[in-house]
Amino acid sequence: MNILHISASPRGADSLSRKLGGMCVDRLKLETGNELCRRDLAFDSPPFPDASFAEASLLPPSERTPAHELCLQESEVLIGELAAATTVVIDMPVHNFTVPAVFKAWVDGVVRPGRTFAHTDQGKEGLLADRPTTVIVASGGSLGADLGGQPDFLTPYVRQIFKTIGIVDVAFIYLQNSLRNGDASGEPSAIELLNHRVDAIVASLSS
């Protein structure tokens, strides 16, 4: 069994989302004994899709050339890491109301027709098994336009992306109003929510 830990903040050790993500992973490792697969998107960004990738990803395997397979090589690595994970922890900031570009590049490498989802008469059907996925989100301001904060396009987008590939057990934990000096309103409550989430994951993996 495996924990996949994905980070997307460019701020390194100063990142609040990384701090909370590290706490989550440390507890999961301690409680479950699972191995850790680390994917740091900010310092090792997946390639952005180009025309060759688009062509290769739309072809059935029987029609691909060696050149097509080479285009999909990194994508297969990313999908393999996700498919092997018993649980997933993602930490990232909000960039311009949504996900960082490096996380979008990861999404474009993972969400592939015929590989992680299928087209059906009822729409897209996920091909991956569900697994507990925890998304830790840090924002410079407050989220929720109806509450006077900034619009949140990250949450519905990430939820829909994972649903598309078959993962619906997705929980979000927010660090809002984060400042450059490392403070964030709601951090104690976020840590409490995180601990409850870890408890739930451990219980589900043990059942």
Which structural traits does this protein have?
single chain, 207 residues, alpha/beta, Rossmann fold, two-stranded antiparallel ribbon, 7 helices
Quick summary of this structure?
This protein has a single domain (2-206), classed as Flavodoxin domain (Rossmann fold), CATH 3.40.50.
Describe the structure.
The chain is an alpha/beta fold and 207 residues long. The chain has one domain (2-206): 3-Layer(aba) Sandwich (Rossmann fold). It contains 7 helices and 7 strands. A 5-stranded parallel β-sheet has the order 2-1-3-6-7, with helices on both faces. A two-stranded antiparallel sheet has the order 4-5. β6, α6 and β7 (170-175) form a beta-alpha-beta unit. The radius of gyration is 17 Å and the shape is globular. The mean pLDDT is 90.
Largest sheet: 5 strands, parallel
Architecture, according to CATH? 3-Layer(aba) Sandwich
CATH class categorisation: Alpha Beta
Helix percent reads: 40-55%
CATH topology: Rossmann fold
How much of the sequence lies in strands comes to: 15-25%
Structural class: alpha/beta
* Average pLDDT metric: 90
CATH superfamily: Flavodoxin domain
Topology, element by element:
Layout: E1 2-7, H1 16-32, E2 35-40, H2 51-58, H3 66-71, H4 73-84, E3 87-93, H5 101-110, E4 117-120, E5 123-126, E6 133-138, H6 154-165, E7 170-175, H7 187-206
Parallel strand pairs: 1-2, 1-3, 3-6, 6-7
Antiparallel strand pairs: 4-5
Helix pairs in contact: 1-7, 4-5
